[in-house]
């Protein structure tokens, strides 16, 4: 018996949903689904395209490579509408979509098993590693290291041993952090040093039980942020793409225009604090000690009006009294959101609050608390820098109703 349905929207994780509520992986809005003996057969519609990567759909990095850019941007907006509901503002900027092969920071895994070295991303909803032969999201210079790293780790890892790798493309070269490998004997250190030198790495560090240790450093990895050169600690948090960062910074700059004193909470290396310090006095707060130290040194060297505070905002959020001096507050928390800090912001006298989020679900929770306290989202900037994934980011300007 044939059962024919049409995909009417995409779920939060990218699966197609039929009118009767069934989920179909790999489907796009407008696809016709023939259920034959309960199994879906996809007849592609106008929003469906052939994925450009051979690893789709096994690789968990690109759930939505099978849909057009227009359909992808529609998914991003629909995701925000469904999370925010009546809080969604009328003023919404176009989706800022990062191009293919633009990811400048990636985390991949390796394991040696059965005499083979597998290196790549996890498969969807699994710990199985997809051995990368192609990648359409990471920068070409990062992907060029995949094959050499596979050879290096084949010699380095024992049977059954795994390792994690974080690669970051900086202005001064690639920074590589490898977790769970030994770098104690002269032979082990020499092998890693030879690899780093042969492939022109800026820095190679290893992470073990004693923490992170730099094995090789030809140049300190650095990035320009707001016209200031910032030195990067190993495996720093960065916005995923240059284009995505530019879109987020432009939105935050627009939302804080005219503010003379600004707080940047969960500031990291200064993605927003440094650009904002061109026109305002900035207090930048974060619990990540190495990032705060790098930001403080960079701001001091550049003579920027920027003060740093090393503080855990989850345990010790800024209170309404502490927030009084600021014309605007920017908060950019991890995926868990900023529940404790938002409670303080909600009852503060700050004229403007700018939320930056990489998780619409926790942002929705924090936005509802602000809405309940009399705040409204005046403008929203959606950003899709994790191209083809279900990962959605945004900037939102809150003002008092």
TrEMBL record:
CDD domains: AdoMet_MTases. Gene3D superfamilies: 2.40.50.1070, Vaccinia Virus protein VP39. GO terms for biological process: rRNA base methylation. Keywords: Methyltransferase, S-adenosyl-L-methionine, Transferase. S-adenosyl-L-methionine binds at residues 239, 266, 286, 332. InterPro entries: MeTrfase_TrmA_AS, SAM-dependent_MTases_sf, U5_MeTrfase_fam. Its EC number is 2.1.1.190. One of its GO terms (molecular function) is rRNA (uridine-C5-)-methyltransferase activity. The active site is at residue 358. It is an enzyme of class 2 (transferase). It comes from the Bacteria. Belongs to the class I-like SAM-binding methyltransferase superfamily. RNA M5U methyltransferase family. This is 23S rRNA (Uracil1939-C5)-methyltransferase. It comes from Polymorphobacter multimanifer.
